[in-house]
Predict the 3D structure of the following.
Amino acid sequence: MTVFPFRAASHTALNRKLYALLLLFAFLFGFGIAVKLHLHRAPEPPPVIPPPYQYSKMTASNGVVLHAIQTSPDNISLKAITTNVTQTGEFGINGGFFYNGDLLSIAVTGDVPAKGQQGDYGSGWYNTDRRKGTLVWDEVTRRFSVQIAESSDELQVADRNRYWAQGGVSMSLTREQLWRDQALAEDMPAFDEKRLRSAVVYDSGQHVWLIASETKATVEEFREAVKMNVARGTLVDGVFLDGDGSTQLKCEEAELKGDTRAVYQMMALTKTHS
């Protein structure tokens, strides 16, 4: 029998070509399906953007009703105003103490007082007459602190152009044996009287909380209500703000007018909606 090697070789080459074509077809078919699935897949949902603030209303076991706005320290602006907080068009809370339109509590942003110039009386450069608790946000270190100071230039910050500070009276939330004496030394008004109260505090996550009471309370009752209900388990410290008729708060969910009086400084939210 005569063998023709070239026929066997041709048959083998043909098989290889067919196999290669099959592989190419399979690849193109699979690639086409993948492209089709990609083009027809459901669109990815947009990223979830957290709201610029969160509101809460709390009733403490001692009966004190609190309204609170939680936000980022980057969302705070210290502003001089001449009306009730609820009439400004801003969301936020009343600031520190005042008299005849002069600011008696520190209110500075990057060494610039809320009203007037550095060193001016009533500008927000001073805690007038004595050293008082001042909540300081350091934008560089991304940390809060409460510092006792009379003048803004006493405040310890990493960069004097990148911080804000709101004066008031120390709450001393971690100093149960000393807080009362410290608050009285800082001339906390109407200490044992039932008054509307306000404060600004921060938690361990470096969120800031603007708090106003709906019900009248002594300083101790208000402080206890804040400790037991605000930022439970993570509350660190803060300062009392002006109170009584000056206790004013505004956001989408709540509006507290105090006694409708005008105040002269507020802590406003720079962003109110996502």
In short: The mean pLDDT is 91. The two ends are 89 Å apart (CA to CA). Residues 1-41 form one domain.
